[in-house]
Amino acid sequence: MLMRSSKVIKIKKFPKLFLLYSLLVGLFLLLLSTLYRVELYKVDSTLISNATNQVSSAKKALENALRWRVSDLDFFERTLIRAEFDQSGHLNTEKLASLWRTFIQSRRVYTEVKWVNFSGQEQIKINYKQGRLLVARGDNLTNISQASYFKDIMTFPRKKLFISSLSIDMKESVNAIDDVPVLVFGEKLEKMPKNTHLQGVLIVSYKIDDLLSRLYNINEDLWLSNHIGQWFKIASDNSLEKIYQLKYQIKMPIDHIQVWKKISTETSGTFVDDYEFGVFDTVLTVGKSGKIHGTKFYVSTSERQSPHYPWKIIYYIEKNHLDLLKKSIHHYHIVMIGGFLIFFIFFGYYIFAMYFKSQKTINKLLMANQIIDNYVIYATADLDDHLESVSEAFCQVSGYTAEELQGQSYYRLCHPDISEDLPVDIKDSILAEQPWSGEIKKLSKTGEVYWVLAYIEPTHDVNARLIGYTTVEQNITDRKHLEVLSVTDRLTGMHNRLKLDETLEKEVYRADRRQHPLSIIMLDIDDFKVVNDTFGHQVGDEVLCKIAELLKHYVRKTDIPGRWGGEEFLIVCPETDLHGVQILAEKIRQSLMNHDFDVVGRCTCSFGVVSRMDNESIEQMIERADIALYTAKDRGKNRVESGSDHVIQTHQHEN
Question: Domain end: 409, 443, 476, which one?
């Protein structure tokens, strides 16, 4: 893509950006308010759904607890059946009590376990209180034949399990040791196949607070109710009622007459009115067979026993609590909307501040880019030297348009007389991934010569692969004109002595590096003093200028001619051996001899030619060429002599 000049235009997107941002903020706040209204609308259904899940979890927890109790009763029963009896049929109570004691201590939920004969006399009794186990003996074993729960158990058939009613103030169900409400489980054992001596009643007292704790751990708004409408739960800190050393909260039927009518007549359901909200389900239901649903317990279906069941689990909160919940939702959303609004204000401020800052940066970059484009001679090319992009300044100095330069060779703009080695040197540096810098002579579209100082750097793609090069150039044409003036002979327009010395140094370096031959030609106008004396210095100057013109015409493209001083000229011949320079010198000699000069007519020159020897210095070459020239003078003028060792030795001998 070509680089074009462009005006720095401020991007006017702020109104659109602000409108879009405001729209997004508005949509987000509208979404929040919609969610708020929907959540308020669905709060009742959400509460019912959550409460139903809580009640279901509580029901499973209580049923699992009762199943564990049944499993424990099986343990006590198995130990009784396998108990040892003496010859008179008396039970070995000591060993059995020791076994029960260990088991009760591991469970920590039983307040009392006892074995009672059919007359109500306790045979074994173990109490558990505050981590201490007491085994009753002697006078501490009492007769419980008048206890209501004992009478109920005795009415049960064999292998039928009894569970007492759930009542917080049932005195017969309160253990005298622990003084806490309990449930009494009982089973009558007699005529067992494996132990015919065993006859009596197994009675286990189980803490009600174990059940209530399970409810409280699930949710503090869960209650457990009995058949007469009493509700029980472990009290919260703000509503404590100390009963039997525990913290219970109790609701009596009179506290919730309308709700209890619904609960007592239905198995499960919900109730929502202006004052209260709740969900309930039944834990224990008695079937026609007398079996309590969900457990192995059996109860009497008589009128005296069946009213003890079922139990209900109730999730209950009052309406004021519900209103507080809705208010908390309302406040939460108000705070959340306010928080997001504040966030969007500060975030918007930050975004727009960054936007304006970025616009300033972009404008600065555009201005810098415009300056670079207008004033820096810049171009990129691929590895095949095809131009890919150019700056406006590059186009201005070359005279071509960007479209005309697209895909053209970088060296198309170079002057025809540049060294053939220049593209090779540049390409070698690029392929070696090294920068190259130097002066390049170029030719514009209009044919004007201009000079640039080029800095060429390899370029890579994102994978660090070499893909081309970038050139940044400085127009040094004016400087080169000054340099040319400083190294140009003012009379003939040829290189002066200073330039020839510089050229010789460069060519010697190139010859050594590339192992190429290097030769020079030194020529002097014959009898030039006679010309000046006879025709005047002006005619002599004209002769000098004409010879300089002829030399420029007859030398090769690679040769560098110049005025050495006075009537002497020097031609540097790169990559030319002695034989080749002799041929060139002879060609020039004949051309000068055959030329008809104005005023003077015929004018000849003498030539001394040498080819550089190994490790020979410039001074040594010039000295040999000078000797060869004066040898030609001594041998009759208008001739070419080479600076061979033989000629030098002869010249030195003659002198």
Answer: 476
Read off the amino acid at residue 509: Y
**Which residues does 100 contact at the CB level (< 8 Å), separation at least 6?**
76, 79, 113, 124, 126
Least confident of 82-91, 146-155, 224-233: 82-91
Same domain as 491, residue 467: no
The β-bridge relationship of strands 231-234 and 246-251 is: antiparallel
State which residues form the domain around 536.
487-642
- 543 and 613 inside one domain: yes
Question: Which of 433, 567, 616, 619 is the catalytic position?
Answer: 567
Q: Give the pLDDT confidence of 350-364 residue by residue, as tens digits.
A: 777 777 777 777 777
Distance CA 627, CA 50 (A): 119
Tell whether 35 is covered by a domain. Answer: no
In the residue annotation, 567 being an active-site residue is answered as yes
CA-based Rg of the chain, rounded to a whole angstrom? 61
- Cα–Cα separations (whole angstroms), residue 364 to 318, 367, 374: 68, 5, 15
Number of domains in the chain: 3
User: Has residue 17 been placed in a domain?
Assistant: no
Q: Two tokens at 653? A: 């001998």
Question: What integer pLDDT is reported at residue 241 of this predicted model?
Answer: 44
First to last CA, the chain: 72
Q: With 90 as the cut, is the pLDDT of residue 376 above it? A: no
